[in-house]
Amino acid sequence: MSRKPVNQRVRIRILQAGGFLLIGALLFAHPALAGDGHEGVELIALALVLVCIAGRMWSILYIGAKKNEELVTAGPYSVTRNPLYVFSVIGAVGIGLFVGSFMLALALGLAAYLVLVVTAEKEARYLESLFGDGYRDYARETPLFWPKPLLYRDADEVTFSPVALRRTFLDGLFFLAAFPAIELIEHLQEAGRLPILFTLF
Questions:
Q1: Of 21, 77, 86, 136, whose CB is crowded by the most CB atoms within 10 A?
Q2: SS3 per residue for the chain
């Protein structure tokens, strides 16, 4: 059993590197869905990113500063052991859709899922070493990743960390920051300032 907490810096750096690669590729790509009908896809994308931000804030209300100190099994943690990661995958799909590419949405969602599920598995081993039978019982009932809504149960009361909530809100702004960046790239391409080398389907 792992007795050391998972190094979150590795996960964060992998996702950041992926974000920089994405921006680099978008500078020279034209989305297949650009033009008529793209606005509808953008609205769906915005809805997914807002679900991501709201879901991550809802999750952090429950776990806050208690991570690795207390086994949290209520609220979003009653339907999945990793709601923060689930909502992050939803946000990644939303960003891909906002670009105007179903393939990119699928690729971003899959990449985020693969990175986060590996992290979740490592965290599970560490939490089992911390909480023993309590965590094993929880893990038997609750999926590691994809939620089972029928398992939902809530706590009578929840105490939360304002610092953790603020940090999660600021993290969520990075998802929203992708939108003006994507719009700026599209504007520069339309103005002929950036060459279009390939199409994203």
A1: 86
A2: CCCCCCCHHHHHHHHHHHHHHHHHHHCCEEECCCCCCHHHHHHHHHHHHHHHHHHHHHHHHHHHHHCCCCCCCCHHHHCCCCHHHHHHHHHHHHHHHHHCCHHHHHHHHHHHHHHHHHHHHHHHHHHHHHHCHHHHHHHHHCCCCCCCHHHCCCCCCCCCCHHHHHHHHHHHHHHHHHHHHHHHHHHHHHCCCCCCCEEEC
20 CB neighbour count, 10 Å cutoff = 9
Backbone angles phi, psi at 29, to 5 degrees: -115, 145
Q: Can you tell me the distance from the alpha carbon of 22 to that of 63, in angstroms, rounded to the nearest whole number?
A: 31
CB 98 within 8 A of CB 182: yes
CA distance 21 to 5: 28
Q: Find, among 171, 5, 178, the residue nearest to 88 by Cα.
A: 171
pLDDT digit string (tens) for 147-175?
999 999 998 888 888 888 898 888 888 88
Q: What is the pLDDT of residues 54-80, one digit of tens each?
A: 999 999 999 987 887 899 999 999 999
Provide the terminal-to-terminal Cα distance of the chain, rounded to the nearest Å: 44
